[in-house]
Amino acid sequence: MDTVLVTGGTGHLGRDLIGRLKPAHRVRVLARTRGTDPDVEWVRGDLRTGAGIREAVAGVRTVVHAATWSPAARRGYLLPTDFWRSPPDVDVHGTRRLLDEAGRAGIGHFAYVSIVGVDRPLLPYLRLKYQAEELVRAGDVPWSVLRATQFHWLTDRLLGKAARLPVLPLPTDIEAQPVDSGDFAAYVAQRVADGPGGRCEDFGGPEVLRFGDLVAQWQRIRGRHRKVVRLPVPARFERAARALTCPAGHRGAVTWSAWLRSHPPE
Ligand SMILES: NC(=O)c1ccc[n+]([C@@H]2O[C@H](COP(=O)([O-])OP(=O)(O)OC[C@H]3O[C@@H](n4cnc5c(N)ncnc54)[C@H](OP(=O)(O)O)[C@@H]3O)[C@@H](O)[C@H]2O)c1
Q1: Domain region containing 92
Q2: Which of 99, 116, 175, 197 could hold 144 in an S-S bridge, CB 3.0 to 4.6 Å?
């Protein structure tokens, strides 16, 4: 059995991915805090400082780099500062550190997890993801770049926080294509089995939804009754939001409503 190193293995995608990799690979996780799964080899480290990276890549055939640091995703809402900066420590500098050590260790496949539409970024966080992709493409290690649309958990968290307000001013006419991180994890695990594939097909959810319809489904299933006010947005913003979908790409199976029904609110 070969060893696969997963960064971000304590996160939403990472946890799903570990389950899908375990039957066919030894799984090692570089994590700031050791997890509890006894079938995983936990290496304590931090992409922000570089601690543990060399130990983590030693003897590994494939690295799946799924760690990220998005302050907005963590808190579940956007602040004005998110529109002009995002910290590059993990996503850019950490990716560079990981790539350098992967190159030294002779890793055969570096699979970078990214986001659909990062080449036309709406937010500085997305720009960082694109910079990281460029590092991966320019590096010496054979690579894959695997992009997904927005995960259901994040859409749910953002709406849950927004619904603390009595009224929801939202860009109801933009399109969204949320996806189950478990569906995407299965796709990533298959790409690990296939080996370096360069820029792989984008992966999105089964439906492209008008944001207003997505919110209506969320309210119905979560039992919320907030008044939604249509927030007009420039056509430029609508186009940028459409770039975050991939109707022609690979599609997951779990719909937004099915996911909501099977996951309690956070
Ligand atoms: N969320 C989305 O909608 C979405 C959509 C498409 C693609 N993606 C991409 O999918 C990947 C996983 O996203 P996710 O939603 O699963 O993220 P997540 O749940 O926020 O998990 C992020 C992971 O990164 C780890 N991490 C953060 N800072 C770190 C550091 N300094 N050193 C080492 N590990 C660190 C976290 O560890 P701790 O537990 O220690 O914090 C956690 O395991 C990312 O590349 C993301 O850009 C996300």
Answers
A1: 3-262
A2: 197
